[in-house]
Design brief:
- The protein has helices at about 5-15, 40-50, and strands at about 20-25, 30-35.
- The protein is of the alpha+beta class and about 70 residues long.
- The protein has one domain (about 1-69): Lrp/AsnC effector binding domain/regulation of amino acid metabolism (RAM) domain (Alpha-Beta Plaits, 2-Layer Sandwich), CATH 3.30.70.
- A two-stranded antiparallel sheet has the order 1-2.
- A hairpin with a 6-residue loop joins strand 1 (about 20-25) and strand 2 (about 30-35).
- The longest helix is centred in the middle third of the chain and has 12 residues, at about 40-50.
């Protein structure tokens, strides 16, 4: 996403549910932390808002889960 990362980052940061988003180095241009009430809401947020943001060509979703002790 050369040349578009800044615009994409600003758009992603403005999406309700995105709690944090930063530009990073490496194979990924942006990492965003999002919050949703459930997995269905998370899926809708990713598909309808983040993946539709101009400059976004691919997303990878990793869900944070607690580790049992």
């Amino acid at each position: 996403m050369p040349g578009q990362a800044g615009d994409a980052l600003a758009r992603i940061q403005s999406i309700p549910g995105v709690s944090l988003a930063h530009a990073v180095t490496g194979p990924t241009d942006i990492i965003a932390f999002v919050e949703a009430d459930n997995m269905d809401a998370l899926g809708r947020l990713i598909v309808s808002r983040i993946q539709q943001a101009p400059g976004v060509t691919r997303t990878t979703t990793c869900v944070v889960t607690p580790i049992p002790r």
